[in-house]
Amino acid sequence: MADPFVWDEALLRRYDTSGPRYTSYPTVFSFRDDFGETDYQAALARSNVDGRPLSLYVHIPFCRNACFYCACNKIATKATRVAEPYLSRLDREMVLIKPHLDTRRDVAQLHWGGGTPSFLSLDQMSDLIDRLDARFGLSNARDRDYAIEIDPREADVLTLRHLQALGFNRLSLGVQDLDPRVQRAVNRVQPRILTEALLDEADRLGFRSLNLDLIYGLPLQTRDSFAATLEQIIAMAPARISVYNYAHVPERFAAQRNIPREDLPGPEEKLAILRTTIAMLTTAGYVHIGMDHFARATDSLALAQREGILQRNFQGYSSHAQCDLIGLGVSAISCIDDVYAQNPTRLEDYETALDAGRLPTARGIRLTFDDRLRRHVIERLMCDMALDLAALSETFDIDAPRYLADALACLEAPERDGLLTREGQRLVATPLGRLLVRHLAMAFDKYLPRHPDARYSRIV
């Protein structure tokens, strides 16, 4: 097994600052509290004119056990019945949205996240799908992308058969690490056989683009222990593998206070884990899509990247064309037309708004021309690992090198350090630069200096 490119550890450490993951631009730290229900309704009306396909995201905040590393908006409980009032309020939110939205548009994407969506009983899953179909009209098209995040401890083969009958065709399974010592340290004991059994059944049922989530930087991990996990994951042959960087922020997430800082791998070991990961997955035939995503060369993500049509949204990378995203549930974010709108992050505030007959829009932002241009720049850089300034000039009717002169000046040092190259008006991230693409994207973020106290995860 050889490294796919020459590593410069000193350079990586120098650029390993904290920064946004750019699932949106502007990021949530720039959303405004004076953005409310009427602003969201106006955005829905504008989106009807353009008629883009719809993407629905449903946040299910419940899970039975709190994993110590988790930074999601979640509620740990073992009582499935607590989901009933939440499902009723989700339906109320749909009812309030529907009069403002042309629901004849195709629902090309559906994603259930959490929490743990597989916390719901099979009947509750059916009920939620029925409500979504009644309000928005779900698709039966073969190219639809209907995905759900699964906790293998909360599902079995009957669950997968039920999900297939409901119309889901893509699964993402949370694994994190297969080392029993690491699993105990993060309060997520999950024998390998659970994951293998679900993968085998999902493959037999015809689910496509199966994804496994891993996390590096967890307590007690070493380069050798994680290599053992990767060896087992590669043998399972999922189409996609996500390897996320653990961000230890115990002051923000109470569950992380159960992880002693001294148990975490140090910076050198963590970098070695990342190096091992990229080398092993590349050798096994996976394409490094960008940041923490890997996919088989024949997978739709890799194909979309080669064709220059890869997209990025709150769920990560997507192979589908741009959709208008409707976020449903506590903390969910919508991206409609030129607007981001976020629901309350506290369940009580979400419930109060809906019980009062109001859309639960807590904050958001309407993008300016400059915001839309920079969003496009950052998305293309993070999806294509390159930026075509000539194409940008044509798309936005500007002189891109002049308009973005300050940002391009910020990239001169990374260019000298070998993180990107210039080919005429085309900027291309090098293999090392792909690892640090978040840093390259930060050069175009005009809001970043306004939020010096914002807590972002480290880049690598």
From TrEMBL:
<feature type="binding site">
    <location>
        <position position="176"/>
    </location>
    <ligand>
        <name>S-adenosyl-L-methionine 2</name>
    </ligand>
</feature>
<dbReference type="Pfam" id="PF06969">
    <property type="entry name" value="HemN_C"/>
</dbReference>
<comment type="function">
    <text>Involved in the heme biosynthesis. Catalyzes the anaerobic oxidative decarboxylation of propionate groups of rings A and B of coproporphyrinogen III to yield the vinyl groups in protoporphyrinogen IX.</text>
</comment>
<keyword id="KW-0408">Iron</keyword>
<feature type="binding site">
    <location>
        <position position="63"/>
    </location>
    <ligand>
        <name>[4Fe-4S] cluster</name>
    </ligand>
</feature>
<dbReference type="InterPro" id="IPR058240">
    <property type="entry name" value="rSAM_sf"/>
</dbReference>
<dbReference type="GO" id="GO:0051989">
    <property type="term" value="F:coproporphyrinogen dehydrogenase activity"/>
</dbReference>
<feature type="binding site">
    <location>
        <position position="149"/>
    </location>
    <ligand>
        <name>S-adenosyl-L-methionine 1</name>
    </ligand>
</feature>
<comment type="subunit">
    <text>Monomer.</text>
</comment>
<dbReference type="GO" id="GO:0005737">
    <property type="term" value="C:cytoplasm"/>
</dbReference>
<protein>
    <recommendedName>
        <fullName>Coproporphyrinogen-III oxidase</fullName>
        <ecNumber>1.3.98.3</ecNumber>
    </recommendedName>
</protein>
<comment type="similarity">
    <text>Belongs to the anaerobic coproporphyrinogen-III oxidase family.</text>
</comment>
<dbReference type="GO" id="GO:0004109">
    <property type="term" value="F:coproporphyrinogen oxidase activity"/>
</dbReference>
<keyword id="KW-0004">4Fe-4S</keyword>
<keyword id="KW-0963">Cytoplasm</keyword>
<keyword id="KW-0949">S-adenosyl-L-methionine</keyword>
<keyword id="KW-0627">Porphyrin biosynthesis</keyword>
<feature type="binding site">
    <location>
        <position position="67"/>
    </location>
    <ligand>
        <name>[4Fe-4S] cluster</name>
    </ligand>
</feature>
<dbReference type="InterPro" id="IPR006638">
    <property type="entry name" value="Elp3/MiaA/NifB-like_rSAM"/>
</dbReference>
<keyword id="KW-0411">Iron-sulfur</keyword>
<feature type="binding site">
    <location>
        <position position="247"/>
    </location>
    <ligand>
        <name>S-adenosyl-L-methionine 2</name>
    </ligand>
</feature>
<feature type="domain" description="Radical SAM core">
    <location>
        <begin position="48"/>
        <end position="284"/>
    </location>
</feature>
<feature type="binding site">
    <location>
        <position position="57"/>
    </location>
    <ligand>
        <name>S-adenosyl-L-methionine 1</name>
    </ligand>
</feature>
<dbReference type="GO" id="GO:0046872">
    <property type="term" value="F:metal ion binding"/>
</dbReference>
<comment type="pathway">
    <text>Porphyrin-containing compound metabolism; protoporphyrin-IX biosynthesis; protoporphyrinogen-IX from coproporphyrinogen-III (AdoMet route): step 1/1.</text>
</comment>
<dbReference type="InterPro" id="IPR023404">
    <property type="entry name" value="rSAM_horseshoe"/>
</dbReference>
<dbReference type="GO" id="GO:0051539">
    <property type="term" value="F:4 iron, 4 sulfur cluster binding"/>
</dbReference>
<feature type="binding site">
    <location>
        <begin position="115"/>
        <end position="116"/>
    </location>
    <ligand>
        <name>S-adenosyl-L-methionine 2</name>
    </ligand>
</feature>
<dbReference type="InterPro" id="IPR004558">
    <property type="entry name" value="Coprogen_oxidase_HemN"/>
</dbReference>
<keyword id="KW-0560">Oxidoreductase</keyword>
<dbReference type="Pfam" id="PF04055">
    <property type="entry name" value="Radical_SAM"/>
</dbReference>
<dbReference type="InterPro" id="IPR007197">
    <property type="entry name" value="rSAM"/>
</dbReference>
<dbReference type="InterPro" id="IPR034505">
    <property type="entry name" value="Coproporphyrinogen-III_oxidase"/>
</dbReference>
<feature type="binding site">
    <location>
        <position position="70"/>
    </location>
    <ligand>
        <name>[4Fe-4S] cluster</name>
    </ligand>
</feature>
<feature type="binding site">
    <location>
        <begin position="69"/>
        <end position="71"/>
    </location>
    <ligand>
        <name>S-adenosyl-L-methionine 2</name>
    </ligand>
</feature>
<feature type="binding site">
    <location>
        <position position="114"/>
    </location>
    <ligand>
        <name>S-adenosyl-L-methionine 1</name>
    </ligand>
</feature>
<feature type="binding site">
    <location>
        <position position="333"/>
    </location>
    <ligand>
        <name>S-adenosyl-L-methionine 1</name>
    </ligand>
</feature>
<feature type="binding site">
    <location>
        <position position="188"/>
    </location>
    <ligand>
        <name>S-adenosyl-L-methionine 2</name>
    </ligand>
</feature>
<feature type="binding site">
    <location>
        <position position="213"/>
    </location>
    <ligand>
        <name>S-adenosyl-L-methionine 2</name>
    </ligand>
</feature>
<keyword id="KW-0479">Metal-binding</keyword>
<dbReference type="GO" id="GO:0006782">
    <property type="term" value="P:protoporphyrinogen IX biosynthetic process"/>
</dbReference>
<dbReference type="InterPro" id="IPR010723">
    <property type="entry name" value="HemN_C"/>
</dbReference>
